[in-house]
Amino acid sequence: MPQIMILDDEKGVQDALALYSEMLGYDAIATTEPSTCRVYHSNQDCDKETPCADVLLIDQFLTTMFGLDLVERQANKGCKAPARNKAILANAFVQEDFKRARNLGCHVLQKPVTYEILENWLEKVQSG
Fold first, then answer.
1. Are 83 and 72 in contact (CB under 8 A)?
2. What is 3-127's CATH topology?
């Protein structure tokens, strides 16, 4: 069963995305803390053999950092999850944020994210 990690500071969003992901066949890991990711700590590289999750949904406004900053840190510290399997959940993005996400190779899902949009993106991720 593929795993999906949901990083969002809003418990209701976490719960809804986790429940729907589970209905789609994912093992959902939901957390508010970016420190769950080993590379959150600036002096540590990822030492895992495989990704912590197959798919990551990361809110842009986390408790201690921006989602795009976490994705960038993951890229620089050897995260094993492919960037194309990561999506930033954003309420409002300026053009520069979209450009940065594109350069990092991750997807942007505008909030509120509908289940249809989420499911369509997850299907694209699974099909490669």
1. no
2. Rossmann fold (3.40.50)
